[in-house]
Design a protein that fits this description.
By secondary structure, the chain is an alpha+beta fold. It has a domain of about 140 residues: lipopolysaccharide transport protein A fold, CATH 2.60.450.10. Helices cover about 20% and strands about 45% of the residues. The chain contains 2 helices and 14 strands, in the order ααββββββββββββββ. A hairpin with a 4-residue loop joins β7 and β8. The termini are far apart.
């Protein structure tokens, strides 16, 4: 047996032994991991989740008395000490019978499931498929009767220009009629004529 063959025979034994030695040191020298300390939650977040009922990513849907479809989503929703459900990043979509779609979004909001009403607060944005893009600080919605109103000022863009009003309502005047946006309390409208291409 020559020297090369003897070297190969020794390496066949030594290399697996060295690999086994390296693996055993990995397990012997590794630190114990406490699974409780590795949870990706802050102490305050754990306390909040334990002290209150909270839902992540809730979704509600239904119809108004006039047949319009309504759906609500939020990032989180919680019930604090018997009050209404408080939501973060609240979004509502209303599909009117007439075919118009209205989307309402806000930073926060409250939802009363018994009364079927919602109050949107903070950076409220109202967008319609007919071309309105409005903003307000507060919006109150009654989804049974389809009455959406802004008790404070509202401003934004309309299909015909810019609009600024003290109050706004989306409502259906009578059963079977279409819902309309109504602006009141000092309406300021800047009309932008549409340029027609010939």
């Amino acid at each position: 047996m020559d020297g090369y063959s003897r070297l190969v025979a020794w390496l066949k034994v030594l290399l697996p032994l060295m690999a086994l030695l390296l693996l055993s040191t990995l397990f012997l020298l590794s630190r114990n991991v406490d699974p409780v300390t590795t949870l990706p939650f802050a102490n305050t977040e754990i306390d909040e989740r334990v002290s209150e009922q909270q839902i992540t990513g809730p979704f509600f849907s239904g119809t108004t008395n006039g047949g319009d479809r309504v759906s609500l989503t939020a990032d989180t929703m919680a019930t604090r000490s018997g009050l209404n459900n408080e939501a973060v990043d609240l979004s509502a979509q209303i599909d009117l019978v007439s075919g118009t779609r209205i989307i309402l979004m806000s930073d926060q909001g409250q939802f009363d499931m018994e009364a079927n009403t919602s109050t949107l607060v903070g950076n409220v944005v109202i967008t319609t498929s007919s071309g309105f893009n409005l903003s307000s600080e507060t919006l109150i919605a009654d989804f049974d009767s389809l009455l959406v109103q802004s008790p404070g000022s509202v401003q934004g863009f309309a299909p015909f220009g810019t609009i600024d009003a003290g109050q706004m309502r989306l409502q259906r005047e009578e059963a079977g009629s279409n819902a309309h946006l109504v602006f009141t309390n000092g309406v300021k409208l800047i009309y932008t004529p549409q340029i027609r291409e010939e």
